[in-house]
Amino acid sequence: MKFKSLVMSAATAALGVATLATPPAAFAQAKEQFFPSLVYRSGAYAPNGVPFANGYADYLKLTNARGGINGVKVIFEECDTGYATDRGVECYERLKGKNGGATVFHTLSTGITFALTEKAPADKIPLITAGYGRSESADGMVFKWNFPLTGTYWDAADVLLQHIAKKEGGWDKLRGKKIAHVYHDSPFGKEPIALLQERAKMHGYDLSLLPVAHPGVEQKATWLQIRQNRPDYVLLWGWGVMNSTALKEAVATGFPREKMYGVWWAAAEPDVKDVGDGAKGYSGLALQHGADPGSKVAQEVLKMVHEKGQGTGPKEEVGTVLYMRGLKAAMLSVEGVRRAQERFGKGKVMTGEQARWGYENLALDQKKLDALGFAGVLRPISTSCVDHRGANWARVHTWDGAKWNFTSDWYQSDDAIIKPMIRAAADKYAAEKKITRRTPEDCQS
Question: What pLDDT is stored for residue 444 in this prediction?
Answer without folding.
Answer: 84
